[in-house]
Amino acid sequence: MNTEGQTELVATEPQPMVEQVSETPPTPEAHAPAAAESHAAAHPTIAIPGLDDSSLYIHRELSQLQFNIRVLEQALDESYPLLERLKFLLIFSSNLDEFFEIRVAGLKKQITFAREQAGADGLQPHQALARISELVHGHVDRQYAILNDILLPELEKHQVRFIRRRHWNTKIKAWVRKFFRDEIAPIITPIGLDPTHPFPLLVNKSLNFIVELEGIDAFGRDSGLAIIPAPRLLPRVIKVPEDGGGPGDNYVFLSSMIPAHADDLFQGMKVKGCYQFRLTRNADLAVDTEDVEDLARALRGELFSRRYGDAVRLEVADTCPKHLSDYLLKQFNLHETELYTVNGPVNLTRLFSITGLDSHPELQYTPFTPAIPKLLQNSENIFSVVSKQDILLLHPFESFTPVVDLLRQAAKDPHVLAVRQTLYRSGANSEIVDALVDAARNGKEVTAVVELRARFDEESNLQLASRLQAAGAVVIYGVVGFKTHAKMMLILRREAGEIVRYAHLGTGNYHAGNARLYTDYSLLTSDDALCEDVGKLFSQLIGMGKTLRMKKLLHAPFTLKKGMLDMIARETQFALEGKPAHIIAKFNSLTDPKIIRALYKASQSGVRIDLIVRGMCCLRPGIAGVSHNIHVRSIIGRFLEHTRVFYFLNGGEEQMFLSSADWMERNLDKRVETCFPIEGKKLILRVKKELECYLTDNTHSWSLQSDGRYIRNTPTGNQNPRSAQATLLERLSLPVLAVNTGPSV
User: What SS3 class is residue 530?
Assistant: First the structure.
C-alpha cells in the first residue's frame, strides 16, 4: 500500500489505547510577546523558544511509527466489517516490515558507518532506535493479543476458523499428514548445520524453521541443529476440506503443519523441537546513480542482492527456547532488543489471502461503483469535452476510467501525433501501459519517463520499460540524482491545422488498482498555459537545457519549495497587516524544517493553519507563542488518504493547488514533482468543501497534541457523527444495488 506509514505502553488486554510519546514539548507560555510587556508585573512570561529549537520538532521515524499505530487502532473499531478490521491489523504488519527494511535499516547504517546525524528534533540515531524498539515491542504484543483474543474469536462466530495445532481433531490430523506428505515434504529441503554445512543465507522476510535434533545421522554427524526454509510457493494459510474440518471456512497454518511432521524429514532422528522464525533485512537499494553506465542493468543486479541485505529484525515463535533464539541472534549479528517473540504466525501479512472471502460478503465493505461525471457519460469523444472545460475527478469516489479512456482514445485517434507520460507505479497488468503500447504500434510518437527506482516496484518498472521499448516507444529513465515522482500526461493533437495540447495532472500514480483504494485528484485540461508548462517540463526531463520559465506550474526541485514558502510568507504578511489569513494543507507527510519554520512564523503572526497530515508530521501544534494557531489532524479510514491539496486565502483572492509532492525534503529538493493550480470559482469551491469535510470529521480523525500524542476525535455533546470518506462516498459515488434474480426456472 505501498504503503507509503503511525503509541502506547504494553497492555495485558487488547483494549484501545492512544500512544504516549516521551518527548517533552516546551512549556506553554504567554500567548503573545507584545501583550506580555504591558502585563509584565502581573504575568511573568517564559521565554519562547527560537524556531530552530529541537524541542519544537518530532523525530521523523517516531512520527511514522505513530501512523502505523493509528492503523492498528482501526482493528479495534467495531464500525468496520470484521474482515476489514483484520485487514487493518495485517496492514500494520506490512507497514512495519517496510519500516524495518528502510527506516530502521537506515538508522542502523548511520551508526555502523559512524555517520550519526541528528535531525531538527535533536535525537541521535541510537536514541531513536532505542525508543523504536520499546514502542514496537509493546505494539507487536498488542497486535497478536488483538488477533488472538478479539478478531479470531469473532471470526469463529461466523464459521471462519483458524485451527491451531493443539486443537486439531483426528480427522484434521489425518488430512494434515496426507497434505504434508503429498504437497509439502517433496519440495522442502532441510539443511543440517555442521562444519561442512554452515548456516544458510536466508532470503529477506522468508519463513524458516530452526530444528533441534537428537541422534546421529547416516554420516555420523550429531550437530543437533537444522534449518528448514519454507518454499515461497507454498501457501501459508491452507483451507481444510469440509469432510475434515466441518462446516464453514476452516484453515490451518503452514507454520503449524511443518513442525507437526518435522520427524518425517529427519528419518531415524528425534526432533526435540521445531520453531518458526523470520528475518527482516535492509531492503534499500544501494545504486550510485551517478556512477553507473546502465541504470537498468545495475538495478537488476541490485534487486537480487536486496534479498540478502544486513539483518535488522528477528521474529520467532514465543515457544522457541532462549538458547535457540540466542543462537539465531548471534548468526545474524543482532542484539536482544532486535528480537520479537510472537504468539502466532511470524508472517501475518500472508493472511491477506483470506480477507476477500466470497462466502462472507457481509464481513467486508459494501461494494460501490465509482461515478463518471455526467459530462463524460454522454460523450464518445473525451477531447471535445476537455477542450471546453477542465474536468476534476476525485478517486476512488469518481472513476479512474476517464483517464485511461483519454489515453485509449489518443492511441486510436488519427489526429493525435504524440503522447508523453510519466510512470512511477503502474502495476503489473497496467491498462495505461497497454494503451501506450497501442499508441506506439499505431505510429504515435510515444515517450515514457519511467522511474526505475520507485521503491519495491523496480522489477515491475523494468518489465514495463522493456515492453514499451519493444513496441517502439522512447523510454527515458528519469534524471540522474532525482526521482521522477510527477504524475503527468501530455497529448498533442492536430485540430484545424494547429497542434493542440491536452494534459492530465494528478496527485496519485497511474495505477488502476490504487485508484480504487487511494484518494487522489485527477485534472483533465486543455488550458493553453498549463499544457505548455507540462510540455516544457517533459522537455527538461527528456532533453538537456536550462530550467524553463513556467506560467502556472510549480515544479520541484526548482520552483515548488520557493513557491510554497512565498505563499506562506504572503499569508503571514496579510496577518501582520491585520487581514484575515488562512492556510489549509492536506498531504501525506510534513518533515521539511524550512516549511515547518515558515508555518511556525505564520502562526506567530496570526495565520490560521489547518493541516490534514496522514502520516509523518514533525511539527508540534498547539504550543503557545509558537504554533497556537496550527491544528493538525490525521484521517485513517477505508481508503488510504493520498491527495495533496494546498489552499491559501490570499486576501480573499483564494488560491488552490494540487500536487504530487508532500512537504518533505525528498519531495521538494530531490524529486521531479508538479504542483498545479485549480482555477475557476466553481472548482475552487468544490475542493474547498471537500477539504472542509476532512476538517469536520469526528469519527475517523485523530488530533495531534503538542507532546506528540494523537487523540481520536469523537462526537461531543449533540454533534452528529461525521466521516469525511463516508460523506464523499455518498456524495460522489454510485451505490451497488443488490440484484435478486429469483429462483432459476
Answer: helix
Higher pLDDT, 28 or 568: 568
Which residues have CB under 8 Å from 439's CB, separation 6+? Answer: 407, 410, 411, 416, 419, 446, 473
Domain 369-549 has CATH 3.30.870.10: yes
CB atoms inside a 10 Å sphere around CB 579: 13
The CATH architecture assigned to 161-287+314-337 reads 2-Layer Sandwich (3.30)
For residue 37, what pLDDT is reported?
39
Beta bridge partners of residue 339, listed in sequence order: 314
Cα separation, 558 vs 242, whole angstroms? 63
Q: Could you give the percent of the chain with pLDDT greater than 90?
A: 72
On the question of a common fold for 369-549 and 555-735, the answer reads yes
Q: How do the domains of the chain map onto residue ranges?
A: 161-287+314-337, 369-549, 555-735
Q: How many other C-beta atoms can be found within 10 angstroms of the C-beta atom of residue 301?
A: 10
Range in 141-150, 287-296, 478-487 with the lowest mean pLDDT: 287-296
Residue at grid coordinates 479510514? 637
pLDDT in tens, 379-421: 889 999 999 999 999 999 999 999 999 999 999 999 999 999 9
Quote the mean pLDDT of the chain: 87
Per-residue pLDDT band for 453 (boundaries 50, 70, 90) equals low
Catalytic residues: 485
Pick the most confident of 31-45, 92-106, 208-222, 233-247.
92-106
Fold of the domain built from segment(s) 555-735: Endonuclease; Chain A (3.30.870)
- Rg of the chain (C-alpha set): 28
Residue 575, helix vs strand vs coil: helix
Q: Which residues contact 319 (CB under 8 A, 6 or more apart)?
A: 273, 275
DSSP 96-165: HHHIIIIIIHHHHHHHHTT-----TT---HHHHHHHHHHHHHHHHHHHHHHIIIIIHHHHHHTTEEE--G
Closest-CA residue to 535 (of 405, 668, 417, 680):
417
Nearest residue to 525 via CA among 618, 402, 431: 402
Dist CA 586 CA 694 (whole Å): 9
Q: How far is it, in rounded angstroms, from Cα 300 to Cα 56? A: 42
Question: Model pTM greater than 0.90?
Answer: no
Alpha-carbon distance of 535 to 142, in angstroms, equals 51
Of the CA atoms within 13 Å of residue 126, those in its CB half-sphere come to: 7
Exposed / middle / buried, residue 425 (Cβ in 10 Å: 0-12, 13-18, 19+): buried
DSSP state of 445: E
- DSSP state, residue 498: E
